[in-house]
Design a protein that fits this description.
383 residues, alpha+beta, GMP Synthetase, Chain A, domain 3, five-stranded antiparallel β-sheet, four-stranded antiparallel β-sheet, 14 helices, elongated
Length: 383
Amino acid sequence: MEEKNITVRDFERGCRPEDVDCNSSVDIRRCSCKLNVYDWIGNINDPLKDNTFVEVRFKNTRKAIYENNNNLELKVGDVVAVEATPGHDIGIVSAVGRIARMQMHKYKMKEPTFKKIYRKARPTDIQKWKEAISLEIPTMLRTRELARQLNLNMKIGDVEFQGDKTKAIFYYIADERVDFRELIKRMAEEFRIRVEMKQIGARQEAGRIGGIGPCGRELCCTTWMTDFVSVSTNSARLQELSLNPQKLAGQCSKLKCCLNYELGVYLHERKNFPDNVSLIKTKTGDAYHTKNDIFKGLMYFETKINEVTVIRALEIQKVKEIIELNAKGIYPDNVFEEEKNTGKFSLKQSADLNQDSLTRFQETQNSGKKKKKIKKKKNNPEN
């Protein structure tokens, strides 16, 4: 990838502005934007089709519902000029008709009035829009310098210019309240625009900037996530994960959102496990519970066998039986020896693991070299 594409960040709006054709639209097949909406009822012939409301997306995570009061024939991918305060803004249509109404219910929008769509973007509108986009990166870098000069404890993460170049939204993160009145004065004098400051969280900043996660894929908050649900360490604890902050934290320095993806499955499977089991008592001694294997239905216990501390697994039903016996004052014998004879702890596992080892061919290669050396010694009687 060229350095130009990295600095310009063309796809922050889901497409490159250069791809806008003369019909004021973009080919959505060439776009890559998490704010796209899949029209799963688009092939249904609806005689009561209503295009009164249209969803329009802008930069990164921002999009809104607008009223099509001029009854324009709009489709997904059209570039439109919409009402703003003040002036007008330029956006790309992401949903029309019934899908747009469904999006209204999703966002729980109950306002009686919506801003209006003026028209399809004209060539002059698109040209001014492109000029505004080219100003975003230099403006952000200059604003960071101004904030540094004023010793403000804040970080400007993103800048979004309005389509008519009269206003810009500056997104920032800060750990505490920041008095940026002097900063706004200097920005208004230097950039000659209306300034709007919006504070965002660390997760929203990561979604705007983007990046690659430890899984090797693009960040979920950049590609498809729009709602950020709080993540707690209890989510990792219920999944038997190591509570290591370096492994559990994402690029936003917060707990990874993906810790919640499989949490529901673990909560459902844990219903089969007995509650609050810290230890079980046997004739050979106490066995302390260490962890669970949710999908295999096993519970691991630490105990001593022949004065050696080992970890052994028991099935859920077996643990429940032992708990009932312990409640009656009965301590079973040969609990872990019986499990060992079932073959669950076969030594063959280590051999199976070595089959995929990266060094599994070295032994055969070394043995071949030894054979060649032996043959050479036989052929040379002097040696």
